[in-house]
């Protein structure tokens, strides 16, 4: 188990976590955020299949945003491929996210830094800031759950260099059995952190490892240029030729509430509000991306509302003919039940039933 964990951390260290030294800002931080933006996760049970395809999301409201460099949100340095679309919903148990962004197909098997990559981040601690990924001022030698208490952030990071399109990655029995948030198959990992230099897989950290760590995320990816929809296998890599125009789709889910007891997972409440951030890495001009060279949909937290079912029922009747038909069928079912009860009640009252006393019944049975 220790050997597997060491190998996993070594691989992870060569990817996103290991590039912390590149996270250096060129000047004073400034941010002009749009205070009106927010993402609503409506209640839509039984709608989403995690396969990387976006067809089942077509009626869900979207949040669209330009992608600006996370460390220098300057309009002149905007991602030129197009805007990112973010959608969210929940089914009462899990919360689902769809990230959609235009981009020419770029894929180098086994090299995450030459493939697109995405991350979601959520505050856990009350003092966790978007800027500096939690905002704890401690360094790598002094950051821990005591010195950085209150600055915890929850991070999901998906690098697709070893992930087959359309296949499910994230939490799996092997890594969860080892008690950490890794993913040895597709690098869809569950992390927590206090700042860019102090990030760890769930269940691991500077204070030692804990066997209760888990990867609670699952997800898949796809690109619209693929002409095979029956499914790929690893031998089909690179799946299509480089430079094909199209759109990337990244689809994720995790439970609203997890069994975390280490302050390493954000917890969501139906009817409540949280916050989130979205990051995107892309190998511009074929060049490998680096850890801090990502784009973001906003330079601050984005409000995330987990809507209760009652408020979404009205919206669902406006979503299309299928939703209207479902609502009408439900209404007819309720009316039918009420009518059946009424008819049964009238029939029972009009029926002439003969009653006998207990004494007579006992006598008839020889008691």
Automatic annotation (TrEMBL):
Statement: the UniProt record of this protein carries the keyword Transport: yes
Organism superkingdom: Eukaryota
TM region positions: 324-345
Any GO molecular function: metal ion binding
Secretion signal span: 1-22
Cytochrome c-552/DMSO reductase-like haem-binding domain residues: 54-296
Keywords noted in UniProt: Electron transport, Heme, Iron, Membrane, Metal-binding, Signal, Transmembrane, Transmembrane helix, Transport
UniProt-listed Gene3D superfamilies: 2.60.40.1190
Coiled-coil positions: none
The protein's name in its UniProt record: Cytochrome c-552/DMSO reductase-like haem-binding domain-containing protein
Source organism of the structure: Salix brachista
